[in-house]
Amino acid sequence: MYNQLKTILLFGVLSALLIAVGGALAPQALGVFVVLALAMNLGAYFFSDRLVLSMYRAREVGPREAPELHALVRDLAARAELPMPRLYVVPGAQANAFATGRSPAHGVIAVTEGLLASLDARAIRGVLAHELAHIKNRDILLSTVAAILASVIGTIGQALSFGMMFGRDDDDRHPAAGLALAIVAPIAATLVQFAISRAREFRADEIGARISGDPEGLARALESLERGARRAPVAVPAGTASMFIVNPFGALDTMARWFSTHPPMPERIARLRAMAPARGARVAYA
Question: Are 182 and 164 contacting, i.e. CB atoms less than 8 angstroms apart?
Answer without folding.
Answer: yes
